[in-house]
Each structure stands twice: as structure tokens, then as C-alpha cells.
Amino acid sequence: MGRSGKLPSGASAKLKRWKKGHSSDSNPVTCRHRQAARSRFFSRPSEKSDLTVDAVKLHNELQSGSLRLGKSKAPETAMEEGDEMALTEKSSGTFLSGLSDCTNVTFSKVQRFWESNSAAHKEICAVLAAVTEVIRSQGGKETETEYFAALMTTMEAVESPESLAAVAYLLNLVLKRVPSPVLIRKFSDTSKAFMDIMSAQASSGSTSALRWVLSCLATLLRKQDMEAWSYPVTLQVFHGLLSFTVHAKPKIRKAAQHGVCSVLKGSDFMFGEKAPAHHPAAVSTAKFCIQEIEKAGGSKEATTTLHMLTLLKDMLPCFPEGLVKNCSETLLRVMTLSHVLVTACAMQAFHSLFHAKPSPGTLSAELNAQIITALYDYLPSENDLQPQLAWLKVMEKAHINLVRLQRDLGLGHLARFFGTAMSCLLSPHSQVVIAATQSLKETLKECVAPHVADIGSVTSSASGPAQYIAKMFRAVEEGLTYKFHAAWSSVLQLLCVFFEACGRQAHPVMKKCLQSLCDLRLSPHFPHTAALDQAVGAAVTSMGPEVVLQAVPLDIDGSEETLDFPRSWLLPVIRDHVRETRLGFFTTYFLPLASTLKSKAVDLAETGSIVESKIYDTLQWQIWTLLPGFCTKPMDVATSFKGLARTLGTAISERPDLRVTVCQALRTLITKGCEAEADSAEVSRFAKNFLPILFNLYGQPVTAEDPLTPRRAVLETIKTYLTIAETQLVNGFLEKASEKVLDPASSDFTRLSVLDLVVALAPHADEAAISKLYSTIRPYLDSKTHGMQKKAYRVLEEVCACSQGPGACFVESHLDDLKKTLLDSLRSTSSPAKRPRLKCLIHIVKKLSAEHEDFIAALVPEVILCTKEVSVGARKNAFALLVEMGHAFLRFGSNQEESLQRYLILIYPGLVGPVTTVSCSILALTHLLFEFKGLMGTSTVEQLLENICLLLASRTRDVVKSALGFIKVAVVVMDVLHLAKHVQLVMEAIGKLSDDMRRHFRMKLRNLFTKFIRKFGFELVKGLLPEEYHKVLINIRKAETRAKRHRALSQAAAEEEEEEEEDPVQGTGDSIEEILADSEDEDNEEEERGRGREQRKLARQRSRAWLKEGGGDEPLNFLDPKVAQRVLATQPGPGRGKKKDHGFKVSADGRLIIREEEDDKIEEEDGTKGEDEEMTDLMEDVGITNKKKLKQHKEVEEEELEMPPQYQAGGSGIHRPLAKKAVPGAEYKAKKAKGDMKKKGRLDPYAYIPLNRTKLNRRKKVKLQGQFKGLVKAAQRGSQVGHQLHRKDRRP
Q1: Alpha helices in 68-118 (DSSP H)
Q2: DSSP 1132-1145
Q3: Long-range CB contacts for residues 806-810, cutoff 8 Å, separation at least 24
Q4: From CA 212, how far away is CA 209, in angstroms rounded?
């Protein structure tokens, strides 16, 4: 928006100003409109006028009231209103009164555009207004039926194309809402009227009226019932609509095609209970399409054929089976014309047929199979890119649909498709290779994977569907030959999908392929190692490691002569992919092997072979890392775990190197392998053996060199195992742990370790054991040993966190005792214990009712002070407890605003206490303002804001920092209207900040100013702040403008890329914008331009068809059935592919610019943050987030917001430039030898003294003379040397 009082640049020159002394003249000198009006008196207008005979006739009929609503009669009694009221209502009406206050929602689309400048739009508004007035004058209720009758009468009265188009458009809107019985009864008259207009407008230059009449006719036909379609007149009307599907004008043709589709697919009776399988008009539509295509024949233009193929693309799934067969034969015949566009459209029609997944009544399995067989004769050349892609996609959908209709028949055809698609991997086009791979993968997932379990085992000698799957796999396996080496990555992807889909049933025919893959991986410089590992991993997942190792053994047994281990790469692959297999296989195969390798490593270490010992030790460790995968959903836990349990216990207690791995395996087994009750019971049976071992391990003291990871893994394993342990066992362990804690002989480390175990045991004990435990740990809540106090609170936290079970019952029965204990221990709580204490209070507050309000009030001071705790966890829990206490007050009262006000009154006293209390109270209020922004009253928020602004005058940085955080959140939360009342107060408070405060909080103030400028504008904020802030505000405005500009450029670039990638979407012809945006003349021009573009495009497409000659001198045989493959849509020969996009920008010198994701995110930020991000900023201010992240964010923010230094070196003294000056003649200096050297294409080097006015200085005269003398002496020496060399050369 421009500034008030000033005109845009250059606008003043276009204005006409008053002459001096003539500013009071009533009329200007130029009055071209009046002169034009005078010139038209008593003369016929030269241009086309809107005042036509039809318009006058319509105006007279509307004014006289002769335009009636069909057969509806006016009500006998009018509305009981006085004459004065009637006169007043009449006199207040305007030309568009019927439009502006039209009550029917059908025309809401028209009402939105009543200010449009389009002539067609104005005509629509005028007709709607007139019809509405007529309906009201006759006492109508403005129903859809009344509008339908009035508009039909109006359509018969008007004659101009503009008015006819307007009426037809309004009819198109209202017909969709008219009740079906009305349209069924009035079908004869209405269809006759539409047909008359269609015949009259068929050859007209205007398309608008005909377009909307076709849409109206389609809606009318769609509303008819099944009985109406048995009459010949209905089919005759439908044939009239069908005849326009080959019209020359695109808009008319599209409207007719859209109408035909809506009739066949969307007729009302097609969705009823007794809906027929096919529409009654489907037969005539199919015959019409076939007849039109055959009539066009093989003509050169093929325009009609293309139009019919476009219609068939939508209609083919709606035809009965016999007509689908006829249409398919017709499509195959026109594909023999080798017309590129015709072939492409026919492929689209087939694709839509298969993609629709029609019923067997439309497309039977036999017909589907016949079409697939026929399409093999139209296989494009491997060098023809686009037709090849279309053919692959059509065949993919065809086979998926065939398998859906009949599994065995579909699988039988898939074998041939796999062979053909695999040959496409030899194509020079990468797009064809990718498309063929994708088609085969989709076919495997859709056709084979769902049915392979029903087929059973697949062997080489099997028959039926199993044989077909074996043939398909052999076709893919052939891709591992060297002929396909360029597409090995795609072949490996296919094998990966094949293994996933059929590995469990088809592994007998896949073992040879696994051996080939292993041999291929051992080949030197194999480039697709990762893809091959993925394929073998898929085989491990589906077949199981037992089958894979039978096909490709590890060849590791501890007796190797060399240490190559060529198949050791299988161990990491099995580790990453093994799951849902037999746990017993690990016990019988891998455990003995690991034991053998460990023994070998120990023997080698004793003999001094350290390197060999390390290798064997690594191998046995890799074997143990397979165990967590074997424990993921194993199939034989109940039978195999007992044979493995003793070994696992020994490994945990005696093998520190395996402790983490075995603990992970146990956790995985419990969480992912004990889904059945029998499995869970079997593993739980060994809890009495494993838990003591784990307890002892956790209680062992650790040295400074020992890592903490095994200890944490042991504790996590204990917690997981306790979830399936029996309660009696847990109670026993808990009692022993309590005795250990109370034992005076126990060390501090032992007590702390045992308390950690008690924390894990407490949630799984019964209520009696928990009560006994509570009495045990209660004295430790006042302990002066910080570690013991913290652990005691952790135990209490775990008990209070139980939402159900014995823990919840204990809290409910001991609630008063817990409240008293927590209040009494308030003063003795140490800082490390604050986090679990606050968490404990959160769980308790959730369970409180209204009678416990005093307890919450007593907690408020403690919680407020905890918002400034050193621990980040304590601060987070403090804020969470504040919010939970607010929710508790909301639960206690009926009026939410009053309840929240009672809660805030408890916090207000902190604003007048010590500095720390004031700062903490502001932080608490800030958090509550954000959390309960919708429940706080406006007056409460405004009062808070005023008081916080007063606190900005504090001399303490903590108070000012908290106050600025509150204002930041208030700007986001408050409504602009309410915030506007306090802008001056806030700005004055900020303006009075001391220089020290302003300098310290410069970044916070800058962010705050940015938000105010976005909400209230630059000028207002600048006027309210002192002058010392103006420089910062100007800088902010520049940064905002720059960010907005960059954002707009990036958005425009992104939109351009999307437009290039996406195909332009064609309109359906139903939107009002198409008729209202442009005038009729512009529509005609657009049609002509569109027709010209279409013809040029057709010509261009036709010119892109090439004929591939035969090889060598062999002539081309046109009788060959595969001659269609010789007609190419792309020019044969090597084509230039597009440059590969790696996703990185490239600098001017060709270097890749690789940026971090964080940099991109920072660059994309435009400063507009949501409420959640505002809360994140606030939490950073408070100190809840990680300090490292806060520091990184602050560095980025300062880099972004600080202006770059504008200083450049120049002048004299300390300001002189430090760059070295270019020495004259330096380009001639030799790199290795002395002196200068000649260069080709340049002048000979010579010595000179550059002319410089600074050399005229007297003080520098001596220096200049020395330079000159040295230059002369050097030239003389060089001359002497040259003379001597010249003499030597001349001597005989």
C-alpha cells in the first residue's frame, strides 16, 4: 500500500491539473463522453450495441409480468403488508436487487462475481436478477423447481446468443438440484427445447450457449430412471448428445464427452439396490465409437479417431463384455496404422480398462488374456522410449488384473512377460530400464506374493502355478549373466523382491542363484556390493539362515590354513536381516562354531600369534552378534530356550565382552519373541536364574577404566525381565534388597546400586510389599546424603507413576500420608532430588480432588522457585507441574475463568518479593499464559502485561530477561485489537531501558521489535521508540524486505519447476470462471489459438515418426508381423541424455556447493514463527533446552542478524591496504631460471621505470636514483654476458 499523500513514481506527468484561477470551475475542459453521446443523437450507432431487440423484448415482458413460472399459479392471498410497506420495498429496489439478496444457495457462485467487468458475466447477473424478481412478484419461495421453470420459459423467449448462454449457464447450475421426479415428468418438453437449441447452435460461431446446453442435457439424462431408458425418445436424445463428441470445437467436444461419461457412470439408478450391470446406453455408445473409428479409417489426419479414443479411454470399463471385445479389436486394428499418437491413445484406453479393475461381466479372464497375447505383436523397439514405457505400464496393469480374475491363468502369462521385460533391461535408455524394473517389482508384489502361500512348495519339477513361478525366477536369474552387466543393479533389486515374495516356498529353485550371487561378490571391483548384500539379506529374512547356509556355507570351522575367510561377509548380512527363524539353529550350529573359534583364538594367543588370535576372536564375536536377530520373533521359544538359557547365563557372568550383546538378546526375546503365553511362561520360568546373576553384576563396583555401557545394559535387562516375572519372586527380591539397604555394613555404592534395583522392582510388587518398602525409604527422604535422597525419591516416583495395579491402590490409600511426607520434606530436599520430587508431585496432583486445594496452594512457592533450578530436568518438571496444577484448578471449579483466576492469585505475590522470586514468578506466568491462552480473560492478560511493563524498569538482568520473555509470548498470544491498546506502554517501558540492559539484550529486543513491526507497521513502532532505537528499526526493515524478496523469488522458482514437471491440467468446463472471465470474442480468439496450437502439435508429433531400416543391405519386409516395431516415435541413434541432477548447486568454476541441512533450515527461515516455535524460544531463554544447542542457535542467529562490516582498507597509516602491489613485468619472470623469458603472442620483455607522480617527491629522489643505477648496471651486465655467448658461438 502506497504512502498517503504521495503518488507513484511517474504518475504526476499523466495527470491533468487545473489552470490557475480555474479550480472552481464546475466542469473540466475535456468532456469526451458527453460529446460522444451528443454525436449519436438521430444517428445509428456504428459499433455493436448491447441494446438489442431481444433485450427490449425481455425487458418489456419482465416489466409487464407476462413472463410466468410455467404452470405454477400465484397464491390467492398475498402477504399481509400495508401499501406503504409495499411502496417502500419497491422504491428501495435496484437493478441487481434480485441478485444481491437471492436466497437460493445454488447461485452463490454467481453472487461472488457480481462486480466482474465481463460482458457475459453481467448478462448472467442480469438474467438471474430478473428471474428472481419475477419469482418474488408471483409469491414464489425461490426453490430450485421455480427457478427451473422460470429459466426454461426465459430460454424460449430470448434470442441473442449472449442471453441464451447466460440462461443455459444458470440452468446448468440449478438442474443439478432440481428433484428427480420433476425432471422425469418434464423430460419430453425440456429435452425438446434443448435439442432445438443444439440444432440451431451447432454451426454457430459462439460456443458458450451450446456448451452449457450440452451440460444441461447430460444432467437431465442422468436424472432419468431405468424405465425412461426403455423409450426410444430417450436414446434419441442421448444420441444427439453423443453426436457432439466429435465436434470440431474443443470446448463443445469436451463438454459432450464429459456429459456422456457422467450419464453412463453417474446416472441415479446405477447406484440403487437394483442397479443393472451396465447402463442401457452403453451398447449404443460403443457402437457409435466403433462406427466413427471405422468411418475415419486410416486417414492422414486421424482427428476423429483420436477424439473417439479419448472417449473410449473413459468409457471402455463401462461396456459389456461383447462390446469390450469389439472395441479392443478396433483398437488393435488402428494400432496397425503406425500412427504415433493413435497408438499412444489406444494404449491409454487399454491402460484405463485394466486399471479400473472391471467385473468379469465387462472383462472376462479369457478376453484379458487374449488382449495380453495380442499386445505382444505391438511391442515397440527397444530404442523407442515413450512407446516402450507405455507398453510396459499397460502390460503390468493387464497382468495384475488377469491374476485378480483368475490366478492360474494370470501366472501362466506372467512367465512370458518376465522374459520380455527382462530383455528391456538391455535398452540403452535408463528410463526404460527403470520402468521395466518397476513393472516387474509391482507385478511380483501384486500377483505373486499374495498367492505364493496357497501355491505351496516351488521346485524345478513342479507343475501348474509352481512351474510358472520357477520360469519367472529363471528369467530374472538370467539377468546375472554378463550380457546384463550394465543393469545388474536393477537385476539385484528384482532378486531382492523375488526373495521377499517367494523365498519361503521357492527356496529349492533359488539355491543356485544364491551361489551365483556369492561368486559374483567375490569378483574383483564388483560395483554393486550393497545391492547384492540387500538381496542376500532378503533371502535370509524369507528363507531363514539355515537354508541360505546350506546353499552357501560359511566355510569357517577353525581349521583353515589361510585366513582369507572369503564368505565372512555373510555374518554381518545375517546379523542385519535374520528374524522369525528357529532359535534352535543358533544353538546347534552357531554356538559350537563360536566355541571352537574362541578356543582357537586362545590357543593362538598362547603361542604368540596375536594377529591371528584377534581375527578368530572377532569372528566368534560376530557370531554372537547374530543372537539378537535370532531372538526377534523366533518360532520355537518354548522348545529351544531351555537349551540356550544355561549358555546365556554363563556368557553374561563370565564373558564381559559378550555381556552387552547377550543382554540385548534377552530384551529382544522378551519384548518381541514372547507373544504367545507358552513362550512367555517358558522365559519367565528362568527369571529366578537370570535375575540374581544380573543383580550381582549390577552391584559390582566399577573402576574408572570400566565403561558404563554394560552396567546400563544390565539394568535395562533387569527392568525388561521384571515385566514377565512372577509377583512372588519380585516380592522376595524386594525384601532382600530392602535388607541390603538397611544393612549398616553396606557401602554407599552398594546402597545406591541396590536402590536402583529397588526402583526397577517397585512397580511390579504387590501392595503389601510396596507399603513395607515405603516405610523403609521414608527416612531417606530427609537424608543429608544427596545421592540417597535422590534414589529414595526415584523409588517414590516409580510407585506414584503407576496408573493401575497395586501401585495405584497404594497411592490412593496412602494419599494423605504422602501429602504430609512431601510437605514435611520440602525444606530438606537437595537440588539433585528436585527433579524426581517434582515428577512425584505431578503424578499425585493428577489424582487430587477439590478438597485437596490447600495442598496445591502450599506447593506453589516451591514450584515457582524450581523454575530456576540448575538441572534442566528439574526446570522441565517444574513447568509441567505448574500446568498440571492449573488443570487441577480447572477440574475443581465449574467456571474455568474464575478457577484459573484463583490459581493465578497464588502466583501474584511472587511479583513483589526478592529478585529471584520475581524472576521465577514472571517465568511461571509466562508459561501459564501460553498454556491457558484461551481460558485467561482479556482483562487478566492486559493487567498482567501492564504490571510486567513496570518490572522492565528493574536494574536486575534476570527480571528484565523474564519480562521480555513474557512480552514476547504476549505478542503471539494476544489479539491484535487488545494488544494495540498497550503498544505505547510496552514501547515506552522498553525505551526507558538503561544502556547496559539495551546492549545486553540487543538480540531479544531485535526479535521483539520485528514482531511488533509485523503486527503494527514500521512507522508506528518508530514513533513510539526513542531515537537511539531508530537505527536498529531501519536495519530490521531492510532485513525483512530482503527476506520477503528472497522468499518470493524462491517460491516463484519452485512454482516454475512444478509447472515444468507437471502436465497442464485440462478444465472440465463446469467452472464459472471460464465463462465469466472473458468475453465471447476473446473465447473465439482463444479457441482459434488453441486449434492452431493443436494442429501444430499434431503436425510436430507426426513429423516425429521414424522408420528404422533393415540391417546391412537387407531390405525391409513390410509383411513381417513385427514390422510395427520398425516405426519409432523417437529418432534412432544415440541420443543425448539430460544431465544428472545430484541435488547440489554448482559454482561458476564447476565445484559442488554442499551445504549442511541446518544451514538450509536457517536460510529458509523467514522470521515468521508459530506459537510452538515461540514457546521453544522462550524455553531457550529460560534454559530448559540443551546449552550446546542454545549456543549453536545463538551463533547462527548472531551471524544472521548482525550486519557485515562495511570497512575497507584505504588511505594511509594503519588504514593502508595490506595487499601487495603488482610488480610491473612480473608476468615475464621465469619460474626456475634467472631473468625474464619471452612468451608467445606477447611483446618482448624490457626493463623500464614506471611513470609515477609520487616519484617527483624530493625526499624520494635518492631512492629513485639508486633504482635507476641498479637497473642500468643490470642491463650492462646482461649485455656483456650476451656478447660473450655470441662470440663463443661464432668461434670455429
Answers
A1: 83-92, 97-100, 108-111
A2: SS--PPPPP--S-E
A3: 806/765, 806/766, 806/767, 806/770, 807/762, 807/763, 807/770, 809/767, 810/767, 810/770, 810/771, 810/774
A4: 5
What per-residue confidence (pLDDT) applies to 1081? 39
Q: Which residues contact 1188 (CB under 8 A, 6 or more apart)?
A: none
Rounded to an integer, the average pLDDT of 205-221 is 88
Q: Roughly what angle, to the nearest 10 degrees, separates helices 161-175 and 144-157?
A: 160
How far apart, in whole angstroms, are the C-alpha atoms of residue 421 and residue 834?
A: 68
Between 1286 and 538, the more confident residue is 538
Q: What is the pLDDT of residues 534-572, one digit of tens each?
A: 999 999 999 999 999 999 999 888 888 788 888 999 999
| Distance in angstroms (rounded) separating the CA atoms of residues 1013 and 971 | 11
* C-beta separation of 1132 from 383 below 8 A: yes
Average pLDDT along the chain: 80
Q: Choose between 262 and 69: higher pLDDT.
A: 262
- Among the residue ranges 373-387, 432-446, 1034-1048, 1256-1270, the one predicted with the least confidence is 1256-1270
| Burial letters 674-698, b for 16+ CB under 10 A, else e | beeeebbebbbebbeebbeebbebb
Q: What DSSP string describes 379-390?
A: PPPTT-HHHHHH
Cell of 627: 543372537
SS3 content of the chain, % helix, strand, coil (to 5): 70, 0, 30
Name the nearest CA neighbour of 970 among 1013, 1018, 938.
938
- Record the cell numbers describing residue 769, joined without a space: 510389599
Give the span between the Cα atoms of 371 and 395, in whole angstroms.
10
DSSP class per residue in 679-741: HHHHHHTTHHHHHHHHHHHHHS---SSS-SHHHHHHHHHHHHHHTTS-HHHHHHHHHHHHHHH
Q: State whether residue 1127 is helix, strand or coil.
A: strand
- What mean pLDDT do residues 92-110 have? 59
Sign of CA dihedral 754, 760, 765, 769: positive
Q: Report the b/e string of 216-243 with b at 16+ CB within 10 A.
A: bbbbbbbbbebebbeeeebbebbebbbe
pLDDT surpassing 50 at residue 1062: no
- Hey, which residues does 1173 pair with through a beta bridge? none
Instruction: Mark out the alpha helices in 1168-1260 (DSSP H runs).
Output: 1171-1182, 1187-1201
Let me know how long the chain is.
1292
Strand partners, 1146: 1152
Low-confidence winner among 41-45, 412-416, 469-473, 899-903 (lowest mean pLDDT): 41-45
Q: Is the pLDDT of residue 1134 over 70?
A: no
Amino acid occupying residue 358: P
934 vs 1016: CA distance, rounded Å: 23
Are the CB atoms for 590 and 643 separated by under 8 Å? no
CA atoms within 13 A on the CB side of 1168: 7
Burial zone of 793 (CB within 10 Å; 0-12 exposed, 13-18 middle, 19+ buried) = buried
* Contact (CB, 8 A) for 1146 and 1152: yes
pLDDT, greater one: 1217 or 726:
726
Q: What are the residues facing 1229 on neighbouring strands? A: 1236
Q: Reduced to 3 states, what is the DSSP secondary structure of residue 1107?
A: strand
Cell numbers standing for residue 615: 581375527
**pLDDT tens-digit map of 804-836:** 888 889 888 888 888 888 888 888 888 889 999
Instruction: Tell me: pLDDT of 39 over 50.
Output: no
Mean pLDDT score, 673-698: 91
**Percentage of the chain modeled with pLDDT above 70:** 75
- pLDDT above 60 (res 28): no
pLDDT at 441: 94
